[in-house]
């Protein structure tokens, strides 16, 4: 796979394609980042962006993981002490998941976001940005809480992070796109360079294929899940034999979350997927490509129950090292 393909595969959006092509043409040694608010244990949402980081490392890029402790504090995720402890556990889980230790740098936000220059730049951005603009950038990240001043400062700081961490590329879930658009607009006003962004998809809710899989609502899969938990969760998932399910009765769009998990989580990490089946049901099926598996589900060659069983097995393999690490850290 060439660098451009590694950078863009499974991305929902790249901003802009031309900038990403330029970056891909000379990717080795360039720096990309994702920021995470430390909270809870790693779940599939974190791991989807981590898969992209692994792609970037394969293309020779260096990866910075921002443990966004100040952002988590602004977004009311706990005391500074709790946030730090969670962040240390996240580090260990990311490495266990398969990020290359040599090509990964972990940085705490508080290491640079409390410095004088950063603070003055932040105040400069506050003067340049309307409350309405900052609030719009935050809409997807903040959830339903009433906006506080902290929620307006948050996207401005995220904008500055791109400059202060000396990056060539910002990566995030699609929920980060409005902040990255704000950054593209505002960084030049401070005479800083604009950087491209890659946005990963957001997987649908496992039980009904509607909306987004979320750690605060519905079912999510995390590093804490046991093999049995995974089986139960995946077996209860919505999996019609199609890539394009009908909207629900009230008109809400639906996805097939089982196929999404195969596409975004399993195929990028394994060369070959084997669906084990007894001979009397046609014997094992082997796939090297997501499209082939999706086509077999649609044609009826692959039964949803077999797809789910296989998905649970591969997800279990992916999270097992992180799960072990967590148990070690907690004992
Ligand atoms: N907004 C992210 C956390 C975050 C990301 C980046 I990229 C930053 O520079 C700072 C914070 C979230 O929603 O988790």
TrEMBL record:
Q: Where is this motif: 'KMSKS' region?
A: 212-216
Biased composition range(s): Basic and acidic residues: 243-254
Q: Which UniProt keywords are listed?
A: Aminoacyl-tRNA synthetase, ATP-binding, Cytoplasm, Ligase, Nucleotide-binding, Protein biosynthesis
**Localization terms from the record:** Cytoplasm
Ranges in a coiled coil: none
The reaction(s) annotated as catalysed by this protein in its Swiss-Prot or TrEMBL entry are:
tRNA(Tyr) + L-tyrosine + ATP = L-tyrosyl-tRNA(Tyr) + AMP + diphosphate + H(+)
Q: Where is this motif: 'HIGH' region?
A: 38-46
Sites binding ATP sit at 215
- UniProt GO MF annotations: ATP binding; tyrosine-tRNA ligase activity
Q: Which positions does UniProt annotate for L-tyrosine binding? A: 33, 154, 158, 161, 176
Supply the PROSITE patterns for this chain.
AA_TRNA_LIGASE_I
**Entries under InterPro entries matching the protein:** aa-tRNA-synth_I_CS, aa-tRNA-synth_Ic, Rossmann-like_a/b/a_fold, Tyr-tRNA-ligase, Tyr-tRNA-ligase_3, Tyr-tRNA-ligase_arc/euk-type, Tyr-tRNA_synthase
Q: What does this protein do?
A: Catalyzes the attachment of tyrosine to tRNA(Tyr) in a two-step reaction: tyrosine is first activated by ATP to form Tyr-AMP and then transferred to the acceptor end of tRNA(Tyr).
Q: Which NCBIfam families match?
A: PRK08560.1, tyrS
Record text on subunit structure and interactions: Homodimer.
Protein name in UniProt: Tyrosine--tRNA ligase
